[in-house]
Specification:
Blueprint (H helix, E strand, L loop, with lengths): L1 H16 L8 H8 L8 H14 L11 H26 L16 H13 L1 H14 L5 H6 L2 H25 L7 H6 L11 E2 L3 H9 L7 E2 L7
Parallel strand pairs: 1-2
């Protein structure tokens, strides 16, 4: 019930200050930018369905939104991110241990210097690969991939790549174990290829991770900067 109360307040604020159409799923937004088929039906579902139902609920029993389906999607997102990340870690540091119980990926200073050099020298080709691998690849088929404009893809990929590069650098430098929310946090960076877009967040941990990858931190803003 405490979570419901907080969520209702957040959704009421969204309904008050946001435009009629909320943002589509970020993967779909990227596909749209790349002039590939995108499913944008999600926007109206939130505005017309989820927000009013949860906002007007007197108790959790009044909420019929399929929470289990949402949780399953989130868990799948997290699993896919972890699997793809573990593969990359092993490619860079073959002796790493990425099991849940025996996690050990902290690199020696010499190893870290080499890894960082590789991450920074691989440029946008690596960024494009990671973007396709973790974000929009499920929405592409072979025909779509052949139509991609490399320059447009490089532009869309840049913020996510730099964020993920910071995540990898932090992981190898400190041996930090992935948290369940890491995949979601990085996902919020995807739309930031757009010049006038920023991410509102109070997450100081995320800022530290992104700084390791030379992410443009001016893209991260706090609500207090806007007088809220």
């Amino acid at each position: 019930e405490d979570t419901l109360k907080r969520t209702k307040n957040i959704l009421r604020l969204i309904a008050e200050v946001c435009e009629k159409d909320l943002l589509p799923d970020f993967d779909q937004l990227a596909l749209q930018q790349l002039k590939l088929p995108a499913n944008l039906a999600d926007m109206r579902t939130w505005r017309d369905g989820v927000i009013p139902e949860v906002s007007n609920a007197s108790s959790l029993a009044d909420v019929t939104v399929d929470i289990e389906k949402a949780k399953a999607r989130r868990n799948q997102h997290t699993r896919e991110f972890r699997l793809a990340t573990n593969e990359i870690i092993h490619n860079v540091l073959p002796n790493a241990e990425t099991s849940e119980a025996g996690w050990q990926v902290k690199a020696t200073k010499e190893e870290f210097d080499t890894i960082k050099s590789e991450l920074w020298s691989s440029g946008m080709e690596c960024g494009i690969h990671l973007l396709l691998l973790m974000r929009i690849a499920p929405g592409l088929n072979d025909t779509d991939a052949e139509r991609l404009d490399p320059a447009a893809l490089a532009r869309v990929a840049q913020p996510y790549y730099r964020g993920y590069r910071g995540w990898l650098a932090t992981t190898f430098k400190t041996g930090r174990k992935p948290r369940a929310n890491d995949a979601i946090d990085l996902h919020f960076l995807l739309p930031l290829w757009q010049d006038n877009w920023v991410l509102l967040t109070e997450e100081t941990r995320l800022r530290k991770i992104l700084k390791e990858g030379d992410f443009d931190l001016t893209k991260l803003r706090r609500l207090e900067e806007f007088g809220v």
